[in-house]
Amino acid sequence: MRQDIERNKNKQEYQFMQETIKKRPTERRSMAHRLLAVAGCGILFGGCAAVTFAEVFPVLADKEENAQQKIELTETQTMEKTEAVSEEQTVESEDTADESQEREKGPLALYEDTYKEVLKISQKAQKSLVTVRGISKEEDLLNNSYMQQGDSEGLIFLETDTQFYILTYEEELENLHELQITFADGSTVSGELCKGDADTGLAVATVKKSQLNDSTREEIVVSDLTDIDSPKQSDMVIAIGSPAGDDDAVVYGMVTSISEKLMAADTEYEVLATDMQGSEDGSGILLDTSGNVAGMILKESESDGANIHALSAEQILPLVERLANNEKVRYTGIYGTQINQAQCSQLKINHGLYVERTETDSPAMKAGIQCGDIISKIDGNEIESMQSYYTYLQTKKAGEKVTVTVLRKSSNGNYMEKDYKIAVTEK
Length: 427
Description:
Blueprint: H1 2-13, H2 28-66, H3 76-102, H4 107-126, E1 129-140, E2 145-159, E3 163-169, E4 176-182, E5 188-197, E6 202-208, H5 214-219, E7 236-242, E8 249-257, E9 261-264, E10 267-277, E11 283-287, E12 293-297, E13 307-312, H6 317-324, E14 330-331, E15 334-338, H7 341-347, E16 353-358, H8 363-367, E17 374-378, E18 381-382, H9 386-393, E19 401-409, E20 415-423, E21 425-426
Antiparallel strand pairs: 1-2, 1-4, 2-3, 3-6, 4-5, 5-6, 7-8, 7-11, 8-10, 9-10, 10-13, 11-12, 12-13, 14-21, 15-16, 16-17, 17-18, 17-19, 19-20
């Protein structure tokens, strides 16, 4: 009984624990509906996204393709990198500064320094250069204007109270209508021709000072031709003007030969051959390493190769003086050259001039001088060179006769001496 009472009591105290916990029944059909709804929404959203992407992507791609990209060669990042590298190099450069100064320069740096020095030497002489253009009398049928003959360089070599004298090139003087002179500052005025020389192709022109403004006159530098020495073989020289046909050019090289001669009537000139590239139409002047005029570049040189050749300024001084004064020259018409010492020894003479030819209808031809003759004397005086022959002729008057002694090869091969009387004329 007591046990029943205790059992009932315990049962009352823990009655709540007697309840049975049951699992809630799963709503399977509701879950399936939800999953199907989510899947349907996903498919619908994906389809919309695909359609939208298909429509928009070509437009965006085309827009990106056609967009102009900005080109920046100096990006901020690049500059930052450069600054960072420069900071690193600054320390290194400070450490190696003394070493780099003592280090010998490479060939390219030396070449650059040499050319800069050449430009510096030529600056003064370039102010002596002018451009000379000849205008002929013949009219151009296309535009009824005077025909231009082409430009040549000219050198201002003398200044008087009223005029500047210019050494330039002869260009069809007989048809010349006008001479235009352009100075270094670009100003152009008319010039007048004094005289030209057909053998050398040189001429002298003048410009009146009254045609030039003050600024042009102040910029002009006159190159002195009277105090110069002719360059020797291996001497460095500078060519300025248009030596290869290009305006305002400066090149340098060396004299490779002085044995070549340019024959002229009753004289010859020493030709300076160089290793500098030139052209047939090239013109200008040669300078020595002090900036003095050393020679006048030959146009249309018949020398082999296309290197620059020039007439020695020292030797053409008498010619330039005659052209500047518009003087006539004493003339016999002999084209010859000095024979070498070995030939003189064989002929048992001290000096001699070999006659290459005589000009047609010249006094020498009329007197009987022939190609192959060797002139040994003039009026009993031994002739050392064609220049000395020319100089002696200039002391004579027109119509005066000179006695020329020649050695002529006979039929048996021996040289016979004979005198010829030549009447000096003027041209």
